[in-house]
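User: Good morning. I'm curious how adenosine-5'-triphosphate would be positioned relative to this chain. Could you predict the structure with it bound?
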Amino acid sequence: MNEALLSLKDVSQVYTSNGRTNEALKHIDLTIYHGECLGIVGQSGSGKSTLGKMISLIDQPSWGEIYYKGNKIEFRDRYIYPIRKDIQYIFQEPIGAFSPRKKIKKFLLEPYINFKLCPKKEALAQIEYCLKQVGLDQSCLNKYPHQLSGGQLQRIVIARTLSLSPKLIVCDEMTSALDVIVQDEILTLMKKLQVENQLTLVFISHDLSLVQRFCDRTMVLLEGEQVVCLDSQNFGTSTHPYIQLLKDSIL
Ligand SMILES: Nc1ncnc2c1ncn2[C@@H]1O[C@H](COP(=O)(O)OP(=O)(O)OP(=O)(O)O)[C@@H](O)[C@H]1O
Ligand SMILES: [Mg+2]
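Assistant: Good morning! Here's the predicted structure, ligand included:
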């Protein structure tokens, strides 16, 4: 097994709204290793996105600790800011990531400005490289989001993510808004990018068969609890009743 990249120790998340509390994640222990592709599956509401947001440090857990490269995360700006670039999150609906009035060029330049990565000319050269990596060319730069397809937009989101040279990408249902053929193309692309860029991936999905095909290990969540985390190839032999249920049903 490779070195640990990120670990969650006894992490719980409680949401409170209208005076009611909801324990969305319960005592999660999880280590994500360098270079692996980890799948997270579970029914709607089981806490997958909540866990994804803990892993990508978007949200702070109510309890528990998170370690990145062996160091405990302190959720204070000056500590967390340099790590934010390393861990990126890709959401389900690519269109939601875009502002309808901003051209693709502006969208792709934003991380260079936000993280003060390099001068504009250099940034544009890097953007061109990232677009090539996702199978697009510069012709999209002067377009608006509505002039592109869902699959093309998701590729642009991936290109923007790559421009930050992340170590870990959390993909939250990133293909579920796309048709089956485009979904397959995007997953094949992610696998290629994982190797080319030495990425670690966390892949959140409803689709157990897709996760098993794509991921080295798969973690199953049920009502905020970790049911099991297994090598994907060992799922076939698992006798856990909930795994049986998942295998027999389409979530
Ligand atoms: N910001 C929030 N405030 C309050 N409750 C929340 C918040 N985010 C999630 N929840 C609740 O936490 C639970 C887990 O939600 P989560 O979005 O993590 O589930 P999920 O497994 O990603 O579901 P889906 O497959 O539908 O995306 C749900 O009961 C949800 O209503
Ligand atoms: Mg979700």
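The radius of gyration is 18 Å. Strands lie at 4-17, 20-33, 37-42, 63-68, 71-72, 87-90, 168-172, 200-205, 217-222, 225-231.
Let me know if you'd like a different ligand tried.
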